[in-house]
Design goal:
12 strands; four-stranded antiparallel sheet; seven-stranded mixed sheet; homodimer; about 300 residues; Alpha-Beta Plaits; globular
């Protein structure tokens, strides 16, 4: 019986100004999964450790994504999936994306890689649709491809890997409150002013330029979101205080990770990241909110065999 | 008496999806100016050849920009400006920007370069304010700095030079009708849908990535404007026909140059640019609209002494 054990990284979508288009993969934070070929056709989720999530494949993002892949291929086998779930659902660091992307990556590998990375993004997006109601790609793309990814368009799907400045480090704090992606999306306005939109695409262009030029100051100046952050940050306790403390501790810039409630900061050294971690912890300790916190460089290769 | 003769390039602002933030400088198209130090204080425009434009400095973009510079410096001299105006006002290829940028660049040079390029952009923007009512920088920045520029923000002014893929060539056609920048701005909507805004910043991010990666196909795919082009193109005769013919002739993509009526196409070779030129000419010849047309590589250095 063929099986594969993989690591599926946590991801940070949006990256402040890059709402719905940018995302990055973390290196030290993520789920583990074992995917096993079986004689019985179909997809079975046999075990989930760490979180209370449905085992029924049609109610589980990994199951949905796996079935989306298999519906595009004639195959005589089935697949069993075990998930060691380290990423908490609703944390905003791509919990559903890791499961969905991990499942399709592993099955594709076991089948001899019949699908391209972009095709895998498409299948994994079906899992995201179950989780949030929208088949978005800004978490599954960096999970599958690694690094920092741009989803330029959805029709057709056009995913581009951007340059990752080598010293970039992420600090991300997860206050232990749950914000559903669907809720975080509902509160957004359907229209924005042209003026704010122009400021936003100026910052997006600045951020992308900063990544390619490895200009850390430019990256920092560009991490400004005039459209989504002012609305969504209201759902996150002490958001402004965490951002201010992080910047004072050396963060290039900060933002809401995905739809929140996690908050990320980018910095240009591990030392800065440690100082930012302390500053973030300090804010939540003072107001008595429990949290998880992670420091990680950027994962250049995405999901990998372990 | 010290004097300097300069070439001030025509520029293409917006570059489709990059409304109000992106611009590039042309290499073979532009104005010539002579700027001369004089004992009499103040700014005088002594001669304008080629176009009927006001000589009064406070009614002329070059005069306004020059005075903005001089108001920031104690100087015992005055300056005389002569302009050989090759770029037609209202063409959409940065006629006012060339005059404004040329004036401040030349005076700065004659004074021993007391100001930085970004400061010069600020002074030249004062000229743009006279021309269009808004102190925009997306033409004066590429005129002054050369290449392809990003105006990330205005407050504070943050201008970034992007990478220019070496084979990129511009074809730009100017149908001989006038579209005032102010009019072209008035017809824009003050609000846009979040959906369109996301598509736009996806394309902006794609275009900037394509420039840095020198990925010509990605540049082409990203030259899509869902917000401004659908409105402004109504002011330009046979806009869709010119775009379609250009793409069929090998254009990577097209857009409105500045606020129009000029239409630009980017291509990855001089041969493609020639074919695009013929295709564009063909459209306007058939419907009997007179035009100017130019082919140019991208000017890497901006305004220069000649």
């Amino acid at each position: 019986m063929k099986e594969i054990k993989i690591f599926a990284p946590a991801t940070i979508a949006n990256l402040s100004c890059g709402f719905d288009i940018l995302g990055l993969a973390l290196d030290h934070v993520g789920d583990e999964m074992v995917v096993r070929m079986s004689d019985e056709k179909g997809v079975r989720i046999t075990k989930i450790i760490g979180q209370d999530l449905p085992l029924e494949p049609h109610l589980n993002v990994a199951g949905i994504a796996a079935m989306a892949l298999l519906s595009n291929l004639e195959v005589d086998h089935g697949f069993e999936i075990e998930i060691l779930k380290n990423i908490k659902p609703g944390s905003g660091i791509g919990s559903s994306a890791a499961s969905a992307a991990g499942a399709v990556w592993a099955i594709n590998k076991l089948l001899g890689s019949p699908f391209t990375p972009t095709e895998l993004v498409n299948f994994a997006m079906e899992g995201e649709k179950l989780a949030s109601g929208i088949a978005h790609a800004d978490n599954v793309a960096p999970a599958l491809l690694g690094g920092i990814t741009l989803v330029r368009s959805y029709e057709p799907l056009d995913v581009i890997k951007l340059n990752v400045p080598k010293d970039l480090v992420v600090t991300v704090i997860h206050p232990q409150i749950e914000v559903k992606t669907a809720t975080a999306r509902e509160i957004l306005r359907s229209h924005v002013t042209l003026k704010d939109a122009i400021a936003q695409w100026g910052n997006v262009a600045g951020l992308v330029s900063g990544l390619f030029m490895e200009d850390y100051d430019l990256i920092g100046r560009s991490l400004e979101d005039k459209i989504v952050e002012p609305v969504r940050s209201m759902l996150i306790p002490a958001y402004e205080a965490v951002v201010e403390a992080s910047k004072n501790a050396g963060a290039l810039g900060c933002g809401i990770s995905g739809s929140g409630p996690s908050i990320f900061a980018l910095s240009k050294s591990a030392l800065d990241a440690e100082n930012i971690k302390k500053a973030m912890e300090n804010v939540y300790s003072n107001i008595g909110i429990p949290y998880d916190i992670h420091i990680s460089p950027i994962n250049q290769s995405g999901i990998k065999k372990i």
